[in-house]
Amino acid sequence: SQPRPLSIATVSAGNFNLQLDVKGYGTHSGNRGPSIRAGGEGNAAGVNAVEKAILVVQALQQLEQEWGITKSHPAFPAGIFSMVPGVFHGDAGVPSVGYLAESATIGYLVWYPPNEGPEAVKAEIERHVHHAAQLDSWLRQNPPRFRWESHWPVFDTPADHPLVKLLVADRADVLGEIPAGLPQTHSFNAVCDASFIAAKGIPVVAMGPGDLRCAHAVNEYVDLAEIASCARILARTIVGWCGAA
Q1: Nearest partner of 49 among 144, 163, 169, judged by Cα
Q2: What is the pLDDT of residue 1?
């Protein structure tokens, strides 16, 4: 089921910022014909890095489809673990269409499940791209370069942790009981600073106003009523957890 307002999230995905650099052989765009047509010079006439980078994107889209089956977690909706090609740039050193691109870079955000190790996920991606590169005469000799620029780890607090139980009860006091048969907690389908607190051995739970469907969008907004309700819930939990009178 979809997370409801002020859902209590006990587990998050992890992510990587991956930059993939693809090398080409930049020459005048008039060389495109002999570089790609039968009877031409092939790679010796020029190699368009943009098109070679598209081959890499297609390979990772294939792997992403496999992830829809192979990567899952009971707390998360199906298909959430994915690879987002959010940035694509290629040129010959100048922003002109008069050349075959000398280089191209694809920027990815990779979402992986909390029940898999980050190093294994990285190795799987690199292995898949390597195998795809073997099918291309240029990429076989000039493999894409991986730059794993950042890693955001997961957090995963057991749903039966006393902190979670207390927050669930306090939410019910303010907003009413969640109907029987529906989940009391949800996954956090993004990342937040709770991961770094959890890494210090401190139990964490994420809860707050807002909706991921409009997060970082031009119309991003928060319902003011949710802010007030969240404050009431957190006040109860802080007092209960800290043992204040």
Answers
A1: 144
A2: 60
What does the chain come to in residues? 245
Residue tagged 């977690």 (tokens) = 73
pLDDT at site 94: 86
Rounded-to-5 percentages of helix, strand, coil across the chain = 40, 20, 40
Residue type, 20: L
Domains detected in the chain? 14-152 (3.30.70.360), 155-242 (1.10.150)
Report how far residue 230's alpha carbon sits from residue 167's, in angstroms, rounded to the nearest whole number.
Answer: 11
Q: Please tell me the distance from the alpha carbon of residue 232 to that of residue 68, in angstroms, as a whole number.
A: 39
Which alpha helices (DSSP H) does the chain contain, by range?
32-36, 49-70, 118-133, 137-141, 162-175, 194-198, 224-242
Task: Confirm if 205 and 194 have CB atoms less than 8 A apart.
Answer: yes
